[in-house]
């Protein structure tokens, strides 16, 4: 079976990166190809545009410094998503530590979502986003990847380094909690 266009393009990017004088061009191609997808992946977790930009920048800094040692045990796409996910979760954990004695972080995120000039959803979409904010981080992450990014469980398992069964359970619990949240009111 021939490689997919994505795999082929990724291999070209990696080959160019390893070629003398090709690092910057290859990195610019990688950023152009994945920046928007990674932005929205991170944004669904962090909600805030500026926080997302910061985490995305940190993600690409880690990619730049680590790409030379990328062993291709997984796909480039998977590796990038893993880095972005870890950076977003680290950001959320650090924010929780800073806000330990402040107001409810879920309410703060919901408030920032309502005031976000980039959010243009209707009332039902806002309610869905608020429901997502009530989920534990892992369930929210799994729901976003499955529902919005339409990832297969196998891809998610590789990115999150967990079993397919655990992901299916997390998604199931997330859906039940979201249904309950949406129906209450």
Descriptive labels:
single chain, 185 residues, Arc Repressor Mutant, subunit A, globular, disordered N terminus
Descriptive account of the structure:
This protein has nine helices and no strands. It is an all-alpha fold and 185 residues long. It folds into two domains: 1-102, RNA polymerase sigma factor, region 2, helix turn helix motif (Rna Polymerase Sigma Factor, Chain: A, Orthogonal Bundle), CATH 1.10.1740; 121-185, Winged helix-like DNA-binding domain superfamily/Winged helix DNA-binding domain (Arc Repressor Mutant, subunit A, Orthogonal Bundle), CATH 1.10.10. The relative contact order is 0.10.
In short:
The chain is mostly helical. The protein is 76% helix and 0% strand. It is globular, with a radius of gyration of 18 Å.
